[in-house]
Design goal:
The complex is a heterotrimer. Chain A is an alpha+beta fold. Chain A is built from 11 helices and 11 strands. Chain A has 2 domains: 2-45 and 262-392, no CATH class; 61-249, no CATH class. In chain A, helix 1 packs across helix 9, helix 2 runs antiparallel to helix 7 and helix 2 crosses helix 10 (352-382). Chain A starts with a helix and ends with a helix. Chain B is α/β, with parallel strands linked by helices. Chain B has 8 helices and 10 strands. Classes of the chains: A alpha+beta, B alpha/beta, C alpha+beta. The A-C interface holds A 15, 18-19, 21-22, 25-26, 29, 61-62, 230-232, 234-235, 238-239, 242-243, 246-252, 268, 276, 279-280, 282-284, 286-287, 290-291, 293-295, 298 and C 18-19, 21-22, 25-26, 29-30, 33, 102-105, 107, 110-112, 114, 175-176, 207-208, 291-292, 294-296, 298-303, 305-306, 309, 363.
C-alpha cells in the first residue's frame, strides 16, 4: 500500500513540491517559536532563588568623598544604623549595581584547575542573604570571619557548582579569578537567583564579599521592609536619605515592580513572536486545507474508480490522509535536518534538550495540522458514490 | 433529398475555387513520446484545403483527427513536415507571432464550447478582439454583429451557464467569426448536441462558408454532417485513407 | 483590456469564495503586521519631534577606546569633552549638550511618582523645537546663575499637578529640591532616548559639578548644528579630525573612535567599530520581513496554482484566439495584483484597528503610532511586491500550459 502511495506522490511531484516547501517552512517557524517557548518555560519552572517581595532598592550617586577609608566606612555604617532604627526596616544590604532585575551586568571568567566558566560577578555584603532570603544549599553565607581568611571567601550558585563540580561538594574548593589571577575559597553554595526575571536563567553567579574600600564605588542598597511599610514611610525614608546624603541624587524602587518590568521586556518579544507564528500557521492551515480539498475534488474520477474496484469509503479517506501525512513526513525529515544543526552547532548557547523538545513539539504540531486539514476533505472523498464520480468523467 | 442537392451544388462550386490552397500540409508526422514508448499519432499526411472549401475529417476514436486539426490550427507543432497557411510558412514562427497569426487568420469551435463561464456572452465573443488593436466601441459593435449572425442578439447579457447547449455553441461560433478569420476549424461542433440542434449549427456553418467564403475544416463523427460538406477525408491510425 | 481583466478577476474571486477568503486572509494579515512594523519604524526614524533640524545636525552619542589586547570600553561622553574639545570646532553654529534621562522619585500626597530628569545647556533649546504648551525654555543667563528652574512634560504636569490650566511659576519638587516650572512641552516618546524626559533641568543645578571631570567619558550626548545641510560633510570631517588628534587618556589605550553621525546612524550605534548598528538593524528587519512574507507568499502561490487548473479551458481558449504567453502572464499578474490590493485595503483597516489597540495599551510610554501617508505608500508598495511575487510563478506555469491539454482538461 505504501509503495503505491509513494508512486502517486512521486508522479505528482511538481504539485507536491510546493505543498512540501510550505510544510517545511511552517515546521521551521514552529521550531523557532517552540524553542523560544520551551526555553522560557524551562526557566520559568526553576525557583526564583530569592524573596523579592518587600525588598526595595535605593540608588544613590556621588558617594561620600573622603580619602580616609575608616571615615568612609563609618559614614555608611552610621547610615545603615539610622535606617535600621526605623521600625519598618528589617534589613539593609549594600551591593554592586548589578542587582536583581536590573540591566547592569558584570561578567568574568573563573577557573577550577583546567575547567573555566563564564560568570556574573556580584559584590555583596553579609546582610544580602537575609535581605533577599536566599536559599543556602551548601556551606554558609558570608560573615565577619571571612575578613581574615587566607583566601578571600566567595559564594557561588548551584548552576556554577554543577558546571565545575557536578554532584561533588564545592565548599572548601579553591577557584582562580582569570582576570585578577587571585585565588578564592568557596564557603557556600546558594540556589541561583534569577537576576533577569522569571523567564531568564540564573546563569553562573559568583558573590564576592565587600571589603573596606567597596563603599567608595557602591551606589546600591537593598532595604528589606516589613509588610506595614507604605508610601508614607517611603517618603519618610526618602527624606531621611536625602538629608543624610546631601550631595546625592536618590531613587527608591520596589523589586516587585522591577521584576514586572523585566518580565515585560522578556514577554513582549515572546508574545509578538507567538502572534506572528500563530498567524502564519493559521494561514498555512487554511491554504493546506484549501489545496487538499481541491485536489480531492479533482480526483473524484480516481476515487470513484477505487470505490468501484472494491475500496471502502474508509479506506479511500484513510488513503488520502496517509498521502498527506507521507508528504508531511518528507517535509519534516528535511526540516529536522536543519533543526538538528542548532543543538549540534550549539547556536545561541541553549541546551540541546530545549531544541529537541521544540523539534518534537513542532513535529507533532505539523502532523496534527496536516491531519486536521486532510480529515474533512478525506471524509468528503469517502462520501463519493462511484457511479456518480465515474459518470462525471 | 434537399441535402443531397445542396451537396452536389456545393461540389460544383468547389471545382471553380480550387486553384490556390488555403492550407497546405506536407508530410506531416506527429509522434508522442513518453519515457518508454513512442506513439505515432499521424504519419505522412499530405493535404491541401482550398480557399473557400468546406472540408470534413472523419475516423474512429484515436485515429488522430483532432491532432490533425490542432496542427492545422497551429495549436500543436508537428514532429515533422510543413504547414503553409495562405501561402505562408509557419514552422519558424515564435510564440508571439503564432498567437498573432491565429488571432488574424483562424477561428476555433470546440465540441465542449469552451466558453468562459465568468464572462457574459458579449464579453466572450469580444475575446479574440482583445488581442488586437481595437477600441472598446469597435469590439462591442463587431461582437453584436457576430451575435446577430448566429441569431443570439437577445442573449448578449446572459452568462453561458444560462444558455442551452445549442445556444452556447452559437456563441462559440460568433466568437470564432467575430475577428473575420479566413479559416474556421471546428472540432466536433455538433458532438454534444441532439440532431435538431446539430443541424441548426451545421446550417450556420454552411451559410458562413457560402456567403462569406470562409474556409472551414470540421472534424466529425456524424456521417450525415460530413456529407453536407464539399469534401470528406477519412483517417485511420494516423494515416489518410481517402 | 484592463477593464476586461478586472471583470474576470472579480468573477474568479466570487466563484470560489473559500479560496478567496484564504487568499485575502493571508494578504491582509501579512500587510497588517508589516504596516504596524512600518508605522513603528517610521515613528522612531521618521518622526522628527522635537529635533526638527535633523537634516543639518550631527549627533555624537559615544566614544570607544581600544586597548592593545583588543579590549574595548565605550560609552557616552563627559560634559567637559563637549565644552572643551567639541566647542573648539569651527563649523557648528550651536552645540547642544544633554545627558540620557535618569530617574528619581518624588512624593505627592503620599503617592510616589517616578520622575526621569535630564540636564541640558542653553544651545539645546535653540536646536530643539519642542512644542511649548505654556511658558518657555530656560536661558543661558538662568543657567549661568544656576537658577533652579525646570521645563516639564505635559504628562508629568498632569501627574504631578493634576488637571490645572497653568503651572508656570509653580514649584516642582524632585530630590528634595524645589524647581520653579517655567515651561511645559508636548510629550516625547521614550524611544527618542536622546530627547525624552519628564523634567528638563539646567546642567548647573545638578548636585555634581559636570565641568570638573576632565575625562572624555561621562554621561552626555552632543548635538552639533551646522549652518546648512551643505556644511554637514565639513562638520563631520572636522569632528573626525579633532578625535584623531585627541591624546590617549591612559597608556594602555591605542585608539579612540568617536563619530558625529546623522540621527539614525547614531541612534543605532553599537559602539563597536567592527559591527555597524545600521547593518544589524537592517538585517534584523529584513529577516523578519522575509519570514513574515515567505509563508503567506508560498501559500498564495500554492492556491494560485491550484486555481490555474480550474481555468485551463479559459487559458486554452485565450491562446487559441491569439493571446501569446506574455499576454497571459500579464493578465494573471494583473489579476493577482487586484487580489492583493483588495487584501491590502482590508489590511489597512486591520492595521488601523491594531494601531488603535496598541496606542491605547500604551506599551511604550508616549509612543503614538499612526498610519500616515508615507506608511500607506509603503503598504501599497508591499502589496504590489506581494502580488508580483506570488503571481509570477503561477502565471508563468499557466502560460506554459499546452493549449491542446488545456482544452482537453475539463
Amino acid at each position: 500500500m505504501f509503495k503505491h502511495l509513494f508512486k502517486l506522490i512521486w508522479n505528482k511531484k511538481k504539485q507536491n513540491f510546493l505543498l512540501m516547501t510550505e510544510m517545511l517552512f511552517s515546521f521551521l517557524v514552529l521550531f523557532a517559536v517552540f524553542s523560544m517557548l520551551v526555553y522560557y518555560y524551562t526557566n520559568y519552572k526553576k525557583p526564583m532563588g530569592m524573596d523579592y517581595r518587600h525588598a526595595w532598592l535605593v540608588q544613590y550617586n556621588n558617594t561620600y568623598e573622603t580619602k580616609n577609608t575608616d571615615s568612609l566606612n563609618l559614614y555608611y555604617q552610621t547610615l545603615q544604623k539610622m535606617m535600621r532604627a526605623m521600625p519598618e526596616v528589617q534589613e539593609v544590604s549594600l551591593c554592586s549595581d548589578n542587582v536583581p532585575f536590573s540591566s547592569n551586568m558584570n561578567g568574568g571568567t573563573i577557573k577550577y584547575g583546567k575547567l573555566a566558566a563564564g560568570t556574573n560577578n556580584y559584590t555583596v555584603d553579609d546582610n544580602y542573604s537575609k535581605a533577599f532570603n536566599t536559599q543556602q544549599l551548601e556551606g554558609r553565607w558570608f560573615n565577619k570571619s571571612d575578613a581574615v581568611g587566607k583566601y578571600p571567601a566567595i559564594v557561588i550558585n548551584n548552576n556554577l557548582k554543577q558546571e565545575l563540580f557536578g554532584d561533588a561538594p564545592a565548599v572548601g574548593k579553591l577557584l582562580t579569578d582569570d582576570y585578577r589571577k587571585s585565588t578564592m575559597r568557596i564557603v557556600g553554595v546558594i540556589q541561583g537567583q534569577k537576576f533577569k526575571g522569571d523567564y531568564a536563567p540564573s546563569g553562573n553567579a559568583v558573590y564576592f564579599r565587600t571589603d573596606t574600600g567597596s563603599y567608595r564605588w557602591m551606589g546600591n542598597m537593598i532595604v528589606k521592609v516589613t509588610p506595614a511599610a507604605d508610601a508614607a514611610f517611603e517618603a519618610r525614608l526618602y527624606k531621611m536619605l536625602s538629608n543624610y546624603m546631601k550631595k546625592s541624587n536618590i531613587s527608591i524602587e520596589h523589586f516587585v515592580n522591577k521584576r514586572k518590568n523585566i518580565n515585560y521586556f522578556q514577554l513582549v518579544p515572546m508574545i509578538v513572536m507567538s502572534i506572528v507564528g500563530c498567524f502564519l500557521i493559521i494561514n498555512v492551515a487554511l491554504g493546506l486545507f484549501g489545496v487538499l480539498w481541491y485536489n480531492i475534488n479533482k480526483r473524484r474520477g480516481e476515487i470513484g474508480l477505487r470505490r468501484a474496484v472494491g475500496a471502502t469509503g474508509n479506506s479511500v479517506s484513510s488513503q488520502l490522509i496517509t498521502e498527506s501525512l507521507i508528504l508531511a513526513t518528507f517535509a519534516l525529515i528535511i526540516g529536522s535536518f536543519f533543526a538538528v544543526q542548532f543543538p549540534i552547532l550549539n547556536v545561541f548557547n541553549l541546551q540541546a534538550g530545549i531544541y529537541i523538545t521544540a523539534m518534537l513539539l513542532a513535529i507533532v504540531f505539523i502532523y496534527l495540522l496536516v491531519l486536521l486539514c486532510s480529515l474533512y476533505p478525506g471524509r468528503q472523498a469517502a462520501a463519493i458514490y462511484p457511479a456518480v464520480a465515474l459518470h462525471e468523467e | 433529398m434537399d441535402n443531397q442537392l445542396k451537396h452536389s451544388e456545393l461540389t460544383t462550386d468547389n471545382s471553380i475555387l480550387t486553384t490556390q490552397p488555403m492550407i497546405k500540409l506536407q508530410n506531416i508526422e506527429k509522434v508522442y513520446r513518453t519515457d518508454t514508448i513512442e506513439t505515432l499519432a499521424l504519419s505522412s499526411i499530405n493535404l491541401d484545403v482550398a480557399k473557400g472549401e468546406f472540408l470534413s475529417i472523419m475516423g474512429p476514436s484515436g485515429c488522430g483527427k483532432s491532432t490533425l486539426l490542432n496542427i492545422m490550427g497551429l495549436l500543436d507543432a508537428p514532429s515533422r513536415g510543413d504547414i503553409r497557411i495562405s501561402d505562408q510558412k509557419t514552422g519558424h514562427l515564435s510564440d508571439k507571432q503564432l498567437a498573432q497569426f491565429r488571432n488574424k487568420k483562424l477561428g476555433f469551435i470546440f465540441q465542449s464550447y469552451h466558453l468562459i463561464n465568468d464572462l457574459q456572452v458579449l464579453d466572450n465573443v469580444e475575446l479574440p478582439l482583445l488581442y488586437r488593436d481595437t477600441t472598446a466601441k469597435e469590439r462591442r459593435q463587431l461582437a453584436t454583429e457576430a451575435l446577430a449572425k448566429v441569431g443570439l442578439s437577445n442573449r448578449i447579457k446572459h452568462f453561458p451557464t444560462q444558455l442551452s447547449g445549442g445556444q452556447r455553441q452559437r456563441v462559440a461560433i460568433a466568437r470564432a467569426i467575430v475577428g473575420r478569420p479566413e479559416i474556421i476549424l471546428a472540432d466536433e461542433p455538433t458532438g454534444n448536441l441532439d440532431s435538431a440542434m446539430g443541424n441548426e449549427i451545421m446550417d450556420i456553418l454552411i451559410n458562413l462558408n457560402r456567403n462569406e467564403g470562409t474556409t472551414i475544416v470540421m472534424v466529425t463523427h456524424d456521417e450525415n454532417m460530413a456529407h453536407k460538406t464539399h469534401r470528406l477525408v477519412r483517417l485511420f491510425d494516423g494515416s489518410q485513407v481517402q | 483590456m484592463l477593464k476586461n481583466y478586472f471583470k474576470i478577476a472579480i468573477a474568479v474571486l466570487r466563484r470560489r469564495k473559500f479560496f478567496t477568503f484564504i487568499s485575502l486572509f493571508g494578504i491582509s494579515l501579512t500587510l497588517t503586521i508589516l504596516l504596524v512594523l512600518t508605522a513603528f519604524l517610521e515613528k522612531i526614524a521618521g518622526d522628527s519631534y522635537p529635533d526638527r533640524k535633523r537634516d543639518r545636525s550631527l549627533y555624537v552619542t559615544r566614544m570607544s577606546e581600544r586597548t592593545k589586547d583588543n579590549g574595548m570600553s565605550s560609552g557616552p561622553l563627559s560634559f567637559y569633552y563637549f565644552d572643551h574639545y567639541v566647542r573648539s570646532l569651527k563649523t557648528p553654529v550651536k552645540l547642544g549638550i544633554t545627558n540620557g534621562y535618569e530617574s528619581t522619585n518624588t512624593y505627592v500626597n503620599n503617592k510616589k511618582i517616578n520622575v526621569s530628569y535630564k540636564y541640558t545647556n542653553a544651545d539645546y533649546w535653540d536646536i530643539m523645537e519642542y512644542d511649548f504648551i505654556e511658558g518657555k525654555a530656560f536661558t543661558k543667563q538662568q543657567i549661568d546663575k544656576g537658577d533652579r528652574v525646570t521645563v516639564i512634560s505635559e504628562a508629568m504636569k498632569k501627574e504631578y499637578f493634576g488637571d490645572v490650566p497653568s503651572v508656570v511659576g509653580k514649584y516642582f519638587e524632585a530630590d528634595n529640591i524645589n524647581y520653579r516650572v517655567i515651561g511645559v512641552v508636548k510629550n516625547v516618546p521614550i524611544t527618542s532616548y536622546m530627547t525624552y524626559s519628564d523634567i528638563y533641568l539646567p546642567y548647573t543645578v545638578a548636585k555634581t559639578d559636570f565641568t570638573k571631570d576632565k575625562g572624555y567619558r561621562g554621561r552626555f550626548y552632543g548635538i552639533l548644528l551646522a549652518n546648512s545641510k551643505a556644511d554637514l560633510p565639513r562638520m563631520r570631517a572636522e569632528y573626525e579630525d579633532m578625535v584623531k588628534r585627541l591624546p590617549m587618556e591612559r597608556p594602555e589605550f591605542i585608539k579612540i573612535h568617536s563619530h558625529a553621525g546623522s540621527y539614525i546612524v547614531s541612534y543605532v550605534d553599537t559602539g563597536d567599530e567592527n559591527r555597524s548598528g545600521m547593518t544589524f538593524v537592517l538585517t534584523t528587519i529584513a529577516i523578519f520581513v522575509l519570514l513574515v512574507m515567505l509563508l503567506p507568499t508560498l501559500n498564495l502561490v500554492n492556491i494560485n496554482i491550484t486555481r490555474i487548473m480550474e481555468r485551463s479551458s479559459e487559458i486554452g481558449v485565450r491562446k487559441a484566439f491569439g493571446a501569446s504567453s506574455n499576454t497571459l502572464v500579464y493578465q494573471f499578474i494583473v489579476e493577482n495584483i487586484i487580489l492583493t490590493l483588495l487584501g491590502g485595503a482590508i489590511g489597512v483597516v486591520l492595521s488601523f484597528v491594531a494601531i488603535e489597540v496598541l496606542n491605547s495599551a500604551n506599551l511604550i510610554p508616549y509612543l503614538v503610532l499612526s498610519l500616515n501617508f508615507s506608511v500607506l505608500a509603503i503598504g501599497l508598495l508591499i502589496c504590489f511586491l506581494f502580488g508580483l511575487l506570488s503571481g509570477v510563478y503561477p502565471a508563468w506555469r499557466m502560460s506554459k500550459l499546452n493549449v491542446v491539454t488545456a482544452l482537453k482538461a475539463q
